[in-house]
Amino acid sequence: MMLCYNANTKQIQRLKAPHLPQDHEVCWLHFTEQTKEMLQDLLEKLSIHPLAKKALLNGSDFPKVDQYEKCAFVSIFIVNDQFQKTQLRIIATERYVISFTEREIELAKKLFVHLQHHPDHLSHPGYILYEFLNSAAMEYLELVDYIARHIQALEKQVFKTPFANEIGHLVFRWKVRLHELRQIAEAQEEVMKTIGHSNFPYVNEESNPYIQDAIARFARVTSALDTFRETLTGIFDLQLSLKSDHMNVIMKTLTLVSVVFIPMTFIAGLYGMNFEKMPELKWKYGYLYALLLMASLGIGIALYFKKKGWWGERSKHQK
């Protein structure tokens, strides 16, 4: 995808082969892995710093911007909802912008169509940089919305199935993803601030406000990622709290049941002693008396617990 803007005619020309712009022209040349040989041939003809050429072909591990004598190298990352990262490498000069991605991306296709309908957006390299940065920011904001929906679903799942071990696994996986994404987003925000600085040579006064708008939009991304990490920590703590509460209820129930049966055990043990002179053993209704006594004590203790709210309190709150 190659476009060239003519400042005299205010028109855009679609190029079939790489074209070095004249004094009144500004060109955008986009290459992919399939057209890499064409890019290499073009770079051999350009008088730009060798490190800039090497960076454009090999890329970098993180977003960055390097300024050289006649050009600037910019590397930004685009992440889709599958968390697949695509590196967009850019060389910006006063008359042309060269971009490269290893595979075709929708961002470049949309920009190609957009520039043909808005020729003035290709009148200066600063506008092209803005279009890249703004489109990348919008992609990140869509990813933020995607993450927000999944984290909200995870919060609801905690209350539906608080004892599911899968929740803890999901929280861990999301925190790993957010950590990696946060590192990229932080570096990319610094790149955008560098480009938006007044000393950056390839952004003019007219295009700088647009760059600042893209920076402000992208700032929401880093802020949202920090919020998501705190929310995930809260979800994990909430699940631990619910599990602990459930365990306390179980222990409380077992304790109350054992307390109810302690007097019965005492009575059974008392009359189970093998002494010869125990008057109650010869009573006609001694057995019935012992059963009634144990039942009365058990019911009495249970009613006392009920009155204090120690028994049945949970089910009452649930209703």
Automatic annotation (TrEMBL):
UniProt entry keywords in alphabetical sequence: Cell membrane, Ion transport, Magnesium, Membrane, Transmembrane, Transmembrane helix, Transport
InterPro entries: CorA_cytoplasmic_dom, CorA_TM1_TM2, Mg/Co-transport_prot_CorA, MgTranspt_CorA/ZnTranspt_ZntB
Cellular component terms per the entry's GO annotation: plasma membrane
Topology term for the membrane: Multi-pass membrane protein
Coarse class of the protein's main subcellular location: membrane
Residue ranges of the TM segments: 253-273, 285-305
Function: Mediates influx of magnesium ions. Alternates between open and closed states. Activated by low cytoplasmic Mg(2+) levels. Inactive when cytoplasmic Mg(2+) levels are high.
Recorded family membership: Belongs to the CorA metal ion transporter (MIT) (TC 1.A.35) family.
PANTHER family associated with the record: CORA FAMILY METAL ION TRANSPORTER (EUROFUNG) (PTHR46494)
Protein name according to UniProt: Magnesium transport protein CorA
Species assigned in the record: [Anoxybacillus] calidus
